[in-house]
Structures
1.
Amino acid sequence: MSTRARVVPDADAEAERQGAFRPREEGPTDLRLVPPALAAWATAAVTLHAPPGWAVTTVAASVLVAVVLLAAGSRLLPARRRPAEGARVTAHAVAATALCVAAAAGSAGLHGADVRRGPVPELAREYARVVAEVEVTADPRLTRPRVSGPHMAPVSVLIEAEVRRVKRAGTTARATRAPVLLIVDPGDRKRTATPAEQQGSPWRALLPSTRLRVEARLAPAREGGDRFAAVLRVDGRDGPHAVGGPSTPQRLAGRLRAGLREATEDLPQDPRALLPGLVVGDTARVTPELDQAFRETDLTHTLAVSGANFTILLALLLGPPGLAQRAERRGLAPRLGIPLRTTAVLGAVLSLAFVVVCRPDPSVLRAAACGSVALLALATGRRRSLVPALATAVLLLLLYDPWLARSYGFLLSVLATGALLTLAPRWSEALRRHGMPPRLAEALAAAGAAQALCAPVVAVLSARVSLVAIPCNLLAEAALAPATVLGFLALAAAPVAMPLAEAVAWCAGWPAGWIARVARTGAAMPGAGVDWPGSWAGAAALGAVTVAVLLVGRRLLRHPWWCAACALLLVLVVVQPRPLVRTITGWPPPDWRMVMCDVGQGDALVLAAGEGSGVVVDAGPDPESVDRCLRSLGVTRVPLVVLTHFHADHVAGLTGVLRGREVGGIGTTALEEPADQAAAVRSAAAAAGLPVTRIVAGERRRTGDLSWEVVWPPPGDHPVAEGPNDASVAMLVRTGGLRLLLLGDLEPPAQRALARSPAARHLAGVDVLKVAHHGSAYQDPGLVSLAAPRLALISTGEDNSYGHPAPGTVEALRAQGAAVLRTDRDGALAVVPGTGGDGEVEVEVARH
């Protein structure tokens, strides 16, 4: 008798073969590797700057502890003296932690020694001039434009490198290996190189692994960062002298990145700047204005090579990483029937390609390691492997580069990844239980969890807390994946088919432009962020506030009406409707005629020219400050921008005035010095399509009930107008029955000439005087006596290094009977006409 047996296929095996592997039921999250990773992190951070002997002692002590604990839990001891099973497991865990501490101390000690040993630190302390052979280790980058008093600090190229050989005059070359920072100064010391000029510099095009021969002056690395042995200041006029080309992988990456830049060349400004940053972290085209918008909305992670980039690529292959914890998977692999472990291998190949294209520096390796966390979960099918995989990645990266232990970027990357793996799934489930759609719950939980853990660290860096970060991240998230995927397709197509790459880049430009609009719109909100103490104490306070908000929010989820009320309150705080703000704060006063904005060490004035309209006189040193001031006043139309002269503390904020406003034109003084700032003004005007005209004495203009007469400078060359300050545009303004005298930065020679000019008869007994040159000591007593103002206003920065305003100037004004107010102490100042008769002046003060 024969028996036929029916074979039933293994459901799990069949599911795995089809790519729908069902993970095994497991217990709570495995946290055993977290303490060793944290211990190694702390050890590396401390050991990097500890004395050399400290690292050796730490290694020896940690190894000894590990050996003792392992011996105590092994069979080396008699059975009666062996610890219980639970104690043995604890001993093994402590021993593993001790070994990780030893490894971290050893690695950090060696990296720290690289900074202190060799001839480079000694020569740096002597500020020696040397000839050095260096190897570039990272992409060159530009310093951000920065106002230093009346001038712009030079825009320099920064290059991280390693010195391989160094030679001082009269000595022989010495071999070494010291990390340094090259600061390539602009060649022409008489003018400041613009960012656009430095972008085209041959120094900017250097690829990592290129070897250079440079003549430089060494200096201690006080500003360069504690991971550098010295700073090398290089004269950039002659260009780089290469003695060795880049490696093959770097050349390949360079060609691909250059192809992406070429493919995006014809896109609109924002997508053209953003797309290379979204794909490979190339932010060379991102303007300071756009960068600030991304900072205000906490979207800067989209501009850096991060785990998000790699996760998006993995999502194409295996679906959203969150589904690695469940039975179902999405993505191309299961749809094509690719087995589970083969999918993991393909993911590893993708990881390697990602590292090659985005440059194998520590930040890219960190991104690949954190983004590859999902691979182990996929290969094993285990939910519990996610957090251990992150801990392992952190541990290995810290051993590879201990300087990451002091990196804020590394800390933020780990916190964000940890939030997505631990908090986000729980919060998503909670939101689903309260009826929220699954996709929306996942997105909101991910954004909220990352923001909750990262916000305290961001507050330390920026001294500000964004209130629009979560909604902006949610809105940007919808466009991030298509922009990144299409961007990588353009990157791959550029070397073989540029027309195809340009077409794909054009498609990618739409979602990239959406992300830029989200950032700009969010940053433009009056309540986009609140100032916060930029210290670790402030971070701890923000953490406590976050916990309290989460506890309250958990209870509010049970009450939809309370949730709606809180959401409405948050919207009002962020949007800050002007009628509501004016009712609560009283700012701006309903009948304001002039406002002196608080822009720090600089000048920016606004003259009321009708509802929503204002003439701007000077723009201050910072676009954000003057833009914030104009938004608080509700100014959306600017008939004219008057730039009294071209010093940076008066014109560097021009782009903030032009931001999102209807501007009629720009008027300037005839003396275009400094030349670089005059060129920057003309460039900004050309980009906005605005005419630039010259203003001279005798001109009269009117808009509504606002009128003004230009009283200085006279037409043509004037013997006292020898510099930019004496060429400042001075104006006599009439508005609301008041007379205001605005003197720019006139110095005593020009002030005396103005007091003797034909216009002097109109200057006697003004109501308001904008004191010249931030209240410096250089004032002409005759002009002050002639003007005899009722009110004197001084625009100056808090704790400025120039001593503005000078005590003698303040006393002289008060001696003339003037009330003196200043922005460094009183904040923004609004002048309104009085109600007690002609010539009465009232001043409203905005305190920030």
2.
Amino acid sequence: MAPVILVAGPPCAGKNHYVDQHRTPGDVVLDQDAIGPQAFNAAVAQLEHERPGARTWVIRCCGGATARARFAERIHASDVVLLTPPEDVLLARARQRPQPHRHAKAVRYWLDQEARDPAPEPQPRPMTRW
């Protein structure tokens, strides 16, 4: 079975760039912005019922740890990559996009969702004594 990797984060976080840097030939990329909502929803529905034949990258904002975990479970993600640049970086990138106010509003909305339901902090590994 090929892995399904969810790449999540706020708008302007660099999700597409991350996938472009890590994908290999033959990988499938599902990005609603690129393929449109109908095609994206159809592809997600297919992932719910069958494993893909190729490694599949799913790009989605998914603000809030609970929503992200539910979506990852729904698509049977083998891994979740969460990109979280600082707010000032996100807003600077939003200003470079068409309709900067719309992108800035989307960034703030995602940050608000994440603040209400944050991802758990990584647990430190116990030290091993030699």
3.
Amino acid sequence: MSFKLPDFLSWSSLDTLRKKMGAPLTDNFVLAPVDSKISIVDQLNTGGVEIDLDEISVHEDGTLIYRGYRGLLHIRDVATIAGDIRMPRYHLAYCQTLEKMKRNSRFDRYVVAQTTSGEFKVNIIDRNVTSEHVRLNVCQNCLERIHWKGFSISGMSRMERQNRVEGFSLPEFFKEYPRDLIRAKPLYTSATAPLNDYPKNWAELSKTIRLKRGYQCESCRETFQPGDGRFLHVHHRNGLKNDNRDENLAALCIACHAKQPEHGHLKAHPDYKLYITSYKR
């Protein structure tokens, strides 16, 4: 016994449902194999994923989070202007550029990716659309937002900043800021963690760091005399007072130190008021 399947494309009931769903009428059906499903990680590592603003959150360290993973934002679709192409920067932190784009309702132009090569998919829109994987530069505001190796827009020359951008390494960034937050495990347990307090030789260590940094604030570049060391502090970038690696320590004037997360209490210190009124030029 044999029977003929109905023509679903002309089936009135199905067609009514199709119109309610806004689905196109087509006979070009393609069945995807079960194992062709692409995971979020694979999507982030390839062409990027279109996002809504609500899907992006900001980690306490300033980096960008998408569905439990640290991500990189970039503008994928770039239009040519009089034949000229201006490539966008990519973002790894919620910087002032992204804040401005959000205020101006332009945030939806971004897609999220997680490449380590520095190459991103970009659609170049002219008379036609050309898709390419191109190398983009990291946003300088982002590097300053996370204080990447002391990066400072106001405290560095243009050439020095450009050299830092060209030498920036995404593998190194993701080593410092793991991509998968779900798999990122604390280094210690409550039983094994060292006490988060200054070492006994902190006064000597702090003086050594300030001397090595030339008694200069790494943020505003104010220079101090050794006798004015009270106004130049040594800051732990990651908030761990027991982590005294050189790269975790920053020499900051008391005003710049007070701007760091959870350091607003310094503004009530007598040295802060004295510095602002008498010392700061």
